[in-house]
Amino acid sequence: MHRWLRDLVVPRRWRTVDEGPTWQPVRDHYIARWGEPEESFHPVRSGNQSGFPGEVVAWPEDLTADLGVKIYATVGASTFVSGDGHASEFVCGVASDCPGIADGLADLSTVVVRNGLGVGHGSTFAFAKPLWRGTRMTAMLCLQQEGTIDTLVGPGWHVEFYQAMPVFTYEVAIKRRDGVSGLLAWWQENETRFWDPHRTPTSG
Question: Based on the structure, what is the number of domains in the chain?
């Protein structure tokens, strides 16, 4: 992975719903890494999906100074556990406050849980509408991360935390054509601030 690619990780208090066996361990794992979250979002219906049962939590930048970004993370995507015990949660790190990211992460988690989808390095999830109001990004790119937060292992399951990156439709096309490394190189060449949630499309 390029050195310039940050280990991004990307939304009030915990709530109780019909929780899966991974939920509380995931919460405890987050708290051990970054402390109590500052905010918690419970998207009932976001732009593309509805009924996400979990939440998206967030920490202020002063608690994540080692990363230089504000962190948003999901609790509930790991409801789906594959036959080999693999489950996923998503973290997104951005340069500034952007509550709308909670909608995008909720959409991503809902698609994975509802459809029983596995996630891997480079998995891309595209939606018919923008990820949140005010952005033109319509897809999430999932990347494996190193050093941001460790894999969580439990009895019969393990949760991997993927870096979820909001992207534009043309960036999805670049990734499909040239692979993840090709997209990263394109970002580098074009000095793309991919960690900026308020970025606008880049020509080329």
Answer: 1
Question: Is residue 182 a part of any domain in this protein?
Answer: no
Alpha-carbon Rg for the chain in angstroms: 16
Report yes or no on 175 lying in a domain: no
If we measure between CA atoms, which residue out of 189, 148, 176, 167 comes closest to residue 4?
189
Q: How far is CA 204 from CA 136, 140, 171, in A?
A: 17, 20, 10
Q: Is the dihedral of CA 40, 76, 137, 69 positive or negative?
A: positive
Residue 138 in domain:
yes
Q: Which domain holds residue 130?
A: 23-169
- C-alpha span between 157 and 140 (Å, rounded): 24
The answer to whether position 201 is within a domain reads no
pLDDT, averaged across the chain: 84
Query: Can you list the alpha helix ranges (DSSP code H) found in 36-163?
Result: 101-115
Can you give the pTM of this predicted structure?
0.85
User: In whole angstroms, what is the distance from residue 111 CA to residue 76 CA?
Assistant: 12
pLDDT tens by residue, 85-109: 999 999 998 888 888 899 899 999 9
